[in-house]
Specification:
Number of strands: 8
Shape: globular
Helix content: 40-55%
Mean pLDDT: 71
Number of helices: 6
Radius of gyration: 34 Å
Distance between the termini: 62 Å
Strand content: 15-25%
Length: 217
């Protein structure tokens, strides 16, 4: 005859009898839902990490592209003022699509108007395409073309006008444009190589930033 063990003197026997062992796998979700254990899903975590890496990498590349743009301050340390040779200044600059041209001047005294070639030559408002009055204007150069800017407060006749030619980006320029802008095929190849090198460096930096972010997360 087999005797069952006496469990009456065991603390908690009524709650957890020996004849009914605890089903730990069934209790595990309860602990997870209450935040005691991390989600053990082997698929969700890698997918989320990869999505985070991709987002950070794209943002880093976009930031690198923005940082590559040049801000051309009209007149350099002379700013936007009368009696300055802005043709000489612009002739020493190379403008590409995506660059900025910025005007620094005393607010309320001067301003900036974009006009057409006739307005530029005659100091009139012919072909007005925009105007700025903040005293610290940043104007994006979005198209490969000739831009004309003047001061509309009567100071254009005192030399406050500037014309700039914006070129396509070097790696998108035609062979003829590259030859004309950079002095021949050798300069074109050099510019293309420099652009490719910049892009490669930007992607490498993006991947490094993304990896660091994934590890920190």
């Amino acid at each position: 005859m087999l005797l069952e063990p006496d469990t009456s003197n065991i603390i908690g026997a009524a709650a957890v009898p020996f004849s009914r062992p605890i089903a730990l796998p069934l209790l595990l979700p309860t602990y997870i839902n209450h935040g005691h254990l991390p989600d053990p899903d082997p698929v969700t975590l890698p997918v989320a990490a990869m999505a985070r890496i991709l987002v950070v990498a794209v943002l880093a590349v976009l930031a690198a592209d923005l940082c590559a743009a040049t801000d051309h301050i009209v007149g350099a340390n002379h700013g936007w003022n009368p009696n300055i040779n802005y043709s000489l200044w612009s002739g020493n600059q190379t403008f590409y699509v995506g660059d900025l041209i910025s005007f620094r001047y005393q607010k309320g005294t001067h301003n900036v108007f974009e006009v057409n070639e006739t307005g530029y030559d005659n100091c009139t408002m012919a072909g007005v395409a925009g105007n700025w009055t903040s005293g610290k204007d940043f104007i994006p150069l979005r198209e490969p073309r000739r831009y004309y800017f003047i001061c509309g407060n009567g100071f254009c006749l005192q030399g406050m006008k500037v014309a700039v030619t914006v070129h396509p980006l070097p790696h998108n320029a035609s062979a003829a444009d590259a030859s004309r802008q950079h002095g021949g095929a050798g300069a074109q190849d050099e510019a293309s190589a420099a652009a490719a090198s910049t892009k490669t460096a930007a992607w490498m930096a993006a991947l490094m930033v993304a990896a660091a972010a994934a590890i920190a997360a």
